[in-house]
Structure formats: C-alpha cells, structure tokens
Amino acid sequence: METRMAVSRKHIKWIPCADPNLIAVAVDLVRVWPQPFVWVTSFYRAGDDGVHGTVPIRGMDVRHYGTRPGALAATKADGADEAAKYAASVNALWEYDHKRPNKVVAFVEDDHLHLQVHENTKRR
Question: For the chain, which residues make up each domain, given as ranges?
C-alpha cells in the first residue's frame, strides 16, 4: 500500500516556506505510516511563538486517530501508542539538535503526532 500525505488548501500554500528538513522528516513518516493517508492538521500558525510560527516553518502536526482515512486507531490512547512507534522510527533517522540530544523530531502530543526540526537538525 502506498501512503500519501493529505494537506488542505489552508496548509498547502505554506509548503514552499517550510524548512527542507521538515519536509524530509514528513516524507520519512509517510514511508513508515501504515495507512493510506497522513492528515496534516496544523502547519504554519501566524503569531505562534514556537516552531509553527517560524519562517522557514519548522513544525507540523498530523492526526493519529479517529474515523477519517489516516486513522491509526479508534481511540486517542490506542492511536497514541501506535503513533509513538512510528515517531520512534522517524527519530531513529533524524537528530533534532546535537546540542540538545534529549529533543526529538517526532513525538505524540494529545491527538496528533508533532514533527519539528531545528536549524541543526540532521539525518543520522
């Protein structure tokens, strides 16, 4: 099965403003994701103090549970457990920042999988 990333019109216009490493991390997630779609739920947020508000954009959220295509599980808890496995697969490929080895590029946050990069993010 081939997995595709589903990006709404709201978010797609910001793709050219994304950090190239964020796009590469997202592509790696698509490669390990077991569902036909990865739903991007948040990308650029004007005024955000974190990675979602930077240009280049360094943060992206994808849904990990629910009833729409791309859902990993029926419940938030089950989805979080499964999503954590795919986050670990992506984190094995990427180092967020060599100066802060405790930080990762992918982690579960509430009902979504959060992807983030830093200017020091590198493929392992």
Answer: 4-123
Q: 94, 122 in Cβ contact below 8 A? A: yes
Contact (CB, 8 A) for 41 and 63: yes
Report yes or no: 96 and 116 within 8 Å, Cβ to Cβ: yes
Task: Return all residues near 56 (Cβ < 8 A) that are at least 6 apart.
Answer: 17, 18, 19, 20, 22
For 50-72, write each residue's pLDDT tens digit.
998 999 999 999 876 654 544 55
Angle at 108 between CA 8 and CA 62, to 5 degrees: 10
Concatenating the DSSP letter of every residue in 36-104 gives SEEEEEE---TT-SSTTSSSSB-EEEEE-SSSSTT---SSHHHHHHHHHHHHHHHHTTEES-TT-TT--
Q: What percent of the chain has pLDDT over 90?
A: 41
